[in-house]
Amino acid sequence: MSGKKRTHRVVAVNGGPRKNGNTARLLEEALSGAARQGAATETVHLYDLNFKGCRSCFWCKTKENYLAGRCAQKDGLSPVLDLLADSTGVVMGSPIYLGDVTGALRALFERFVFINLAYDLDAPSVLKKGPSVGLVYTMNIPKEGMGPAGYEVILDTHAQFFSRLKSPRFEQLFSCDTYQFDDYSKFHAPMFNEPHKKEVRATQFPLDLRQAFEMGQRLAQNK
Predict the structure, then answer these.
(1) Fewer CB within 10 Å, N- or C-terminus of the chain?
(2) What digits encode the pLDDT tens for the residues 97-149?
(3) CATH number of the domain at 7-215, please?
(4) pTM for this one?
C-alpha cells in the first residue's frame, strides 16, 4: 500500500449515527470545498458498516506484513482502510459522546492508525506520505466550556495519532453549542435553552459550515 500512487480524492467519514445531522452537514460542506479544488469525493457512513476495533493480534507488525499497512481482520471496514490510505485527504466527523468521539470513529482510529505505524525510531509510518486529515467535532457544550470539561486535552490526542502518519496537514474544527433536537418539546432537557440554541444555529452554524468548506479546499491540496 505504501508504494501506491495516491488518487486525487477526499473522503468524508461520518462517525455519527445521523446522515443529515450537524456532523453530516459539515462533512458535506468539506467535500464541496474539496470538489471545488477538483478532487473526487466520497462519503463513508460508519454506522452502516459491521466492524470492530483493533483485536491486538499484531499481524500487521509481523516481519513479513508490517510494510503492507493492512489489517488481518476482514469486515466492513477493510475496504475503507485501503480507501483512506490511497486518498489525498480525509475528513472525519463525529458528535462528542461522553467527552470523546463515538465508539465507531474511535474503532476506525485504532484500525487505520495502528496498521500504518512502524515500530522504527527513524520511520514512524509505513506510508511514504499520509493523507491530509481534518477532524470535525460537533457538541452541545459551548466553546468556552471545552477547557474546563477537559475536551481540549482529550481531542488533542488525535493530532498526535496522525502526526505519526506523515500527514502533511492536520486540522480540527469544533462546532459547539449545537442544536440537538428537531423538536425540544418532546424531550426532557431543561438544562438547554432552546431560544439560545436556535440563535446559535442561525448565526454560528453557517460560519462553521464555511469553515468546513475551506477545510475541504485545503485538504484537497495535500501540501
Answers:
(1) C
(2) 999 999 999 999 999 999 999 998 887 888 888 899 999 999 999 999 999 99
(3) 3.40.50.360
(4) 0.93
